[in-house]
Predict the 3D structure of the following.
Amino acid sequence: MCPIEKAKSWPFEEARKILRRVQKYGLENVILETGYGPSGLPHIGTFGEVLRTTFVMRAFRRLSDVPAKIIVFSDDMDGFRKVPDNVPNKDVLEKHLERPLTSVPDPFGEYESFAHHNNAMLRRFLDSFGFEYEFRSSTETYKSGGFNDCLTRVLEHFKEIMEIMLPSLREERQKTYSPFLPICQKTGKVLQVPIKEIKLESKSLIYENPETGALEESSVLDGHCKLQWKADWGMRWAAFGVSYEMNGKDLIDSFKLSAKVCEKIGGVSPENMVYELFLDEEGRKISKSKGNGISMNEWLRYAPQESLALYMFQSPQRAKRLYFDVIPNAMDDYIDAAQKFYNDDEERRLDNPVFHIHNGTPLRCECCLKFSMLLNLVQACSTSDETIILQFVKKYVGDVPAESMNLMARMVSYAVIYYNEFIAHTRIPQKPDTLQTQALNALREELLNKNENAAAEELQNAVFSVGKKFFGDDLKRWFETIYGVLFGSKSGPKIGSFISLYGISNTEKLIAKRVSYDQQ
């Protein structure tokens, strides 16, 4: 059996769903879609959905020669219902509530509308990661007539679609619900009003204007109406021929309703994966309008994009906190995966996250240091000078491939920023008690007897030896002593490796400084 046929990582499992669909329907091309509502600044969850869909597309391309592409769709014709908390000039935006997002001014004053601003932000991030996608705007597609055929079918099946949607709504909402939302010709607002009459011949509808009470007629074509989002979702699947779309756990029921709409107008609902939601520091769902959690810009200030991609790859069906404190572990997990890749056989490589992150050709990181190690090195050096820190790194790793050294140089820059902003104020080295002082001084003496070029393993054995002498079998307390006194933390890197990196004489001086309880 070919190794790729045995690959078990989730992108390959999802890609096999699409392959079975291709075989069932005889498809000549595959469309994967991911949707986005630009009612607020794009958050990292939106980016994650595009990234994960990209993993699936790449896996599918390795299983099949059938052409496949991703459509990133912006529902920018949706009505502007709430002013986000994280934008300037809120008073200006308040005047444009209920208008299509592409008709709302850009509060940043950079683009022709708020939607255009948010769309541009998202595309910049996607482009910076080298994503392959086709961007489509709801406003442009509606107004150009791209949805006209499917909108006609929605009109023809108006009654049946109402029967699909009404049971899912509250009683009060049922009284005003319509899958079609007319755009008021006078105010430009997206109207949520009941429909009085359907006119199939003219492909229009009659509704009561809520401001004037007068009956008005609107075509459903060419952007004069848009669909409610669940009906819109299903209509898009039919219009674009979407074969695959993933969604968050909170949209499970919505997906089912949209699938019924899609099938009612002659489409086939797509294959689907449900992922768990990202949570902020307090365990709340992240939100575009609140701007809670961490943004893409913020993550990429503190760690390279490889770490973000790794975090998005891991366990998509498990809820995860998305906050600053997850960044170091995500970077370390990336290094672990990259170091394993070239030592594994082909079958294991296919299930390694870095295979998907780098589309089969990951960086060589055999000698890269962990991010957590670099954070402790920054503290031990008591400097923000990246050149000094990188000198320690180069001495420790020796002659390594240029791509590995380039990654470490980037990691050093990130480590300095991350340490200064998140760790420095929390690291207060503890004052050692009598036993801890004796043990640390014994370690100093042990290190003074070692060759400056002693291997990390030899140094680790020396640390164990001293620990057993003073703490017996309670080595946990010994290592807590080392981390607490030297770094002001409860845990840390493998201490032998750290001593080898920082240097024996430098470590001896650091211990002497901490034993004297000099916290400067």
Q: What stands out?
A: The chain has 24 helices and twelve strands. Residues 129 and 308 are 11 Å apart (CA to CA). The chain has a mean pLDDT of 92.
